[in-house]
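Risk register update: the risk that structure generation would not scale has been downgraded. Supporting records follow, first protein first.
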Amino acid sequence: MKNFDQTLEQGSVGKVFVKYLIPSLVGMLLMSVNIVIDGIFVGHRLGGVALAGINIAVPVFSIFTAISLWIGIGGASQYSFALGEKDIKKAQVIFTRSIIMVLLITILLAILAFIFRIPLAYLLGANDETISYVMEYMNVLLLFGFVLTLENILSIFVRNDGDPNLAMVALIVTAVVNVILNYSFLFIFNLGVRGSALATVSAMAVGVIILSTHFFKKNSRLKLTGFSLTFDSIKKTFSIGLPSFLSELGMSVFTMGYNIAIAAVAGTAGVAAFSVLNYSHSVILMMFLGMGSAIQPLISYYRGAKLVKREKQTVRLAAFVAVGTGVLFFIIGLLFADQIVRMFGNFDTDIHDLAVLGVRIFFSAYLFMGFNFVMMTYFQTTNRIGMATWITVAREMIFMVIFLLILPPFFGASGVFSAIPISELIVATSIMLYAHRKHIFKLPA
């Protein structure tokens, strides 16, 4: 792919960034809208308790995603680095090893989780009202979770192999198919929560098929080849991908923590209100993930090719875009909280009011969250694993848990919704101090 390499090395940094950013954002945006539509369908067809049940089961979905990102980003960073070094054979070995690793680990974990699925459901926050919905959704995810991980890792590698547009098309088709199947299974065939889960995994299987067409393209460098699972190769993949794994795992901790905290101060109504907020949050979160996905192949390639100036120009541009996007979403949350909540159904007053309160408080986190995501990806891709891990662990584990324990006894539901915004602010401040000390944004002469 000579033209691809020339574009990355000689083309305008801004144009190259946009070339990767737009497909990534469009794909992620449609996937997030797809998640929201799922919530709208379930909320209108089955009600708030069913919505809460799905929300409780979501961490299982997140764990599978975490595994695919852990190995996918860890492998893809090495893959693009090898492309930058012009070592195609090495890149193909890395790709093959990553695919085998993600499938083996996913299937083994799914078997274990399925055996202990009932205690797992209660551990995630299920109660007598929600357990039946949680089990319906979780059973499907555990049986077909490998489809999710395969789609995720293929999407990452296709993007790193210079075909972000195909990755976008796969996400778009997945989203459209999911919407069609969700409506059909819920409103026509009356399959309930199980139907929503089946729609999701079926749509992802379609995405896998579309992504697989990249193998047959003339300029594809993705080839399955012989490989060996050495300790050093596994260690390197897991090390580089660890922040991505912890980030996705942190989303599970976030969902579990918020479910438990809001249930303690507002009961099932609080969990239902948080479910609405969480669906809205998924939209913005996917956008920020899209920004990280856009810069990862570029930074990895520039590192391999030793193009330091282009690397720094890219991260500066990405950070600026992330902050601007965060400001926009914060304003939307302040002005349109009521409209956002009403999209998901006509809830009882207590659920509606709590959800509106949550949107207005929680959306302030987006002032800092996008910047944190971009910088985490940058540090991870440039092998500053310690800093990338700190960002991930601090924002959704350490500080979030601390504030979920401290704030609710004094401020009730408002304290619960404030935990993430405060955590994001603290982490963003620590990043700026580190970046200033290490001259991260300073361009070389």
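Supporting record for the second protein:
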Amino acid sequence: MNVKKEDMLLYGITDRSWLNGRTLSEVVKESLEGGVTILQIREKDIDEKNFLEEAKEIKKICEKFNVPLIINDNVEIAKMVDADGVHLGQDDMDIEEARKILGPEKIIGITAKTIEQAKEAQMKGADYLGSGAIYTSGTKQNAKRLTVEDLKAICASVEIPVVAIGGLTYDNIDVLKDSGISGIAVVSAIYASTDIKTDTIKLKEKTRNLIDA
């Protein structure tokens, strides 16, 4: 396995729509100071050149905090910046093809919404799964909801870490107790905050207590 289970505890996913005049690097640094354990850059609306430059800058910050950097969807960008890995959706590049490009040491995460998808991803060599949406969110309002019971079944069906995703916040994660997850993936719960560092510290502590309970 190319990823440590403890790295999955608090999975931050960037979204520039909440920057409010700040740079992405500034808000990422605040979130890492607060304890984000793995970071994914997700960019849907900037061109390849700017994405590449941004990823290079964020990688330097992640290295200072010893936090793995994951690139969403874009295997080529992940390779060019020597990111720690890539996260792929069900409609993105096949795991085996991504592995050929990135090599055996890189982290490959997969979105899995069913037991079948989870088992297939593990069989093909995925390092972790992202499963949801537990709640609807501002980033993916049309995402199909995943019940906590289905999440538990996914966790029980595989040996690799599973992170829950989808509208998760400090106030609503209690439903995930005893689900078998290794952590939570969040966007707005961190990056929409006016005090990113403080809210990240609180969210990480609550998540750890939830999973360790």
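The radius of gyration is 16 Å. On this basis the risk owner (M.S.) recommends closing the item.
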